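During the first year of the project, the team set up a workflow for recording each protein of interest as an amino acid sequence followed immediately by a discrete structure-token representation. This format lets reviewers and collaborators read both layers of information side by side without switching files. As required by the reporting guidelines, we include two representative entries from the current panel. The first entry is reproduced here exactly as it appears in our internal archive.
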Amino acid sequence: SRAPPTMSQPAPSTDSLVNLQCPIPISDYPTVTLAHGGGGRLTQMLIERMLLPAFSNPQLASLHDGALLAVNGARLAFSTDSFVISPLFFPGGDIGSLAVHGVVNDLAVCGAEPRYLTLSAIIEEGLEWTTLDRLVASFARAAREAGAVVACGDTKVVRHGEGGGLYLSVAGIGELVAQTPPSPHRICEGDTLLVSGPVGDHGIAVMLAREQFGLSGNLKSDSASVLTLTRAVWDLPGMHFLRDPTRGGLATVAHEIARATQFGVVLEQARIPVRDAVTSVCEMLGYDPYYLACEGRVVAVARPDIAEEVLRRWHALPGGELATRIGHIEGGKPRVTLATALGGRRLLDELEDDPLPRIC
């Protein structure tokens, strides 16, 4: 049998996959699994081995949350995302506002102000009208708050049992405002990593809302627009990279940085903010908060001499009060290590399985 190629090997041609002539496997799994949508290693393999070769567009490999476009002199950012979260309502948000925040945040970390959104709704037969009305109103309210106009959309209805109540697919166009847009390719050895607030809130809040484990608590999702936080630092000349740590959480963003830069990423355990409630649930159920989705946080990579200015600006804004330094970029192998509270180091592997499917 033929062993799967490593990540460094060339991606298969589209023809070999479509025609199934000597196919190169997308992963060790014979079919698509939930883990292929979890944001970790299998998601990356799916993208690099099937999707990127199919479209032959170098810009798709930019390793950012959106594409930067120039149209008749206009500088634009363009992003798209889909939302399949269960349950539809959770402490701190719902699928309507989450869908807006997700796309707005992707544009914001590219250095763009959101201008236009699309909305495609796949509705499951049997969804109550009052539920749909609440979710549409939530979407509309979040769009207005972000300063974006819903310009077009589509609706489809699927049979009962063939959907999760409501799936939303959203695209967004933004006006590029940052003079030098944040990019992973601007990251330098010695740069500082920062995060705008505690990690893991969204993942644990949604998990508790599912009531799968007989647990309850007052924890809320961090689902929110990060536009105000990103606006505050776009103009800083040493701001090299911004990313919202959604699927796969903080650890997955760190691996994306290592892969794009070929530098090492060091996270400092004692500095990473995690709420006590998140830590407690993770310890009981065996989750790692560094791999859990956030929906209202920003990870920044900045020149060390401006790190304090980033924190000063974030601390003055809602959602940034608990911002802190969490690590740095180092030379050597492109890997992610955790500097533990005891003074040692351990490797943080790429996310393999999907710990909490349908989290966003």
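The second entry, processed by the same pipeline in the following quarter, appears below.
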Amino acid sequence: MKTHSLNDLAQSHLRDILNIVFRQTQDKHALIVSDSQSALSLLLTRAYRTVLPDATVVDFDQSDPDAILSQFDVLSPGDLVILVQSASFRLSKFRIRIELFQRELKVIEHPHLARIQDTEFAVYIDALAYDPTYYRTLGHQLKRQIAQASGINIIGTETELTYDTCFLDPKLNIGDYEGMKNIGGQFPIGEVFTEPQNLLRVNGEVTLFAFGDTRFRVNVPEKPFIARIQEGILVDCEGAPESFQEVLNTIRKEEDVVWVRELGFGLNRALTQTQRVSDIGTYERMCGIHLSLGGKHLQYKKPVFSKKGGFHVDVFADAKRVEIDSVTVYTEGAYLLECVNDPSSTPFSA
């Protein structure tokens, strides 16, 4: 795809995000903070400047922290801040996004853009597309089903991972902030995630085709491998590459065992097993199932896990089918629409 086509597509998708997700109006100020350390950061900054011609633009690399903070100080609750970052901006010991939320500002964050390879730009831009009917219908449906579930099965060609337990309150990342205190977050979006109430009731095997490595990049081995999980702990992964064993050894060195905590339903149809980006935080939205390894989870606090430190490593399941209480909700790369009420429902195709 030619650069000018990517620019046009980025502008179209960002305009939809601003209008549909954030309901940005002319009476609300917009501040763009960006850097020039990566080609994708430059591309997104140009697109935002085009669709928000009245926005204030600050070059993070050319501004001292006090000057940037002074720009935040003049904003009012409900104004919008856009962070376009080749890595991750830091102005203090806290993440900027958290500080902005405390000021009741809306936030769009694009972090770690330098991890996205030039050949992946088109996939990243496609992943910014916002279809409110798809995300909001499917997202809320999955949230309801998971919240009421007594079990979930992740079924592969030769494997099955069984969650024989209820689940903690599912969280939505679907561009619908109705009733939420904080408006915004990291883009691209598309995810519903939860955690089993009883981790000890997670047993079986799951085929993994990709994982986050120690550099926070997506690692895809030549062949998928099988991880065996017993009472919520990854106990064996025969055939796994050395790079994955390195991840497991790193976790075990600090945490003794490798817990399997988050169960994530990625919804973003631009991200698939074959359409990938290198940044793990972006690819986490991949249309399919991902799990987290390690005891760290900021959304779900449990006394058994330390409040500080720990690991949260995303791994991606080669799931052929997913069942919630024996009802198929995902099959061959697509979710089913209203599958509870209509067994012959139409798939949301990738």
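For the second entry, the following points were noted during internal review. The radius of gyration is 20 Å. The mean pLDDT is 92. Both points are flagged for discussion at the upcoming steering committee meeting.
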